[in-house]
Amino acid sequence: MPNTLLHLVFGGRVTDPQGQDFVDPNHLDIVGIYPSYAKALIAWRGASQAHVDDANMKYVIVHLHRLLEPDEAHNH
């Protein structure tokens, strides 16, 4: 079985829509952890589109597999 490349999707209110400084890290919206970038992207799009009218709400995808194995080469 190939390695599972875990991805975390979360978001919250940011001080500047161009940055990633979250206003209240204690109240982040944790969307979930996904076994592939493709599934994480679907979740990210859904969460982002649900808040499209709020410029200060930002959702991101974190490549957990890169944090868990920083020396490994990963495609996504």
Report the sheet with the most strands, covering strand number, pairing sense and barrel closure.
3 strands, antiparallel
Rg calculated over all Cα atoms: 13 Å
At the third CATH level, what is the topology name?
Answer: Alpha-Beta Plaits
How much helix is in the residues?
A: 25-40%
Number of helices: 2
CATH architecture: 2-Layer Sandwich
- Assembly form of the protein: single chain
Mean pLDDT: 90
What is the H/E order? Answer: EEHEH
Give the percentage of residues in beta strands. Answer: 25-35%
Structural class: alpha+beta
Number of domains: 1
Major β-sheet strand ordering: 2-1-3
CATH superfamily: Uncharacterised protein PF13773, DUF4170
Brief summary:
The protein has 76 residues and is an alpha+beta fold. It has 2 helices and 3 strands, in the order E-E-H-E-H.
Explain how this protein is built.
By secondary structure, this protein is an alpha+beta fold. It has a single domain (7-68), classed as Alpha-Beta Plaits (2-Layer Sandwich). 25% of the residues lie in helices and 26% in strands. It contains two helices and three strands; from the N terminus they run E-E-H-E-H. It has helices at residues 37-50, 64-68; strands at residues 7-13, 29-34, 57-63. It has a three-stranded antiparallel β-sheet with strand order 2-1-3. The longest helix has 14 residues, at 37-50. It starts with 6 loop residues before the first strand and ends in an 8-residue tail after the last helix.
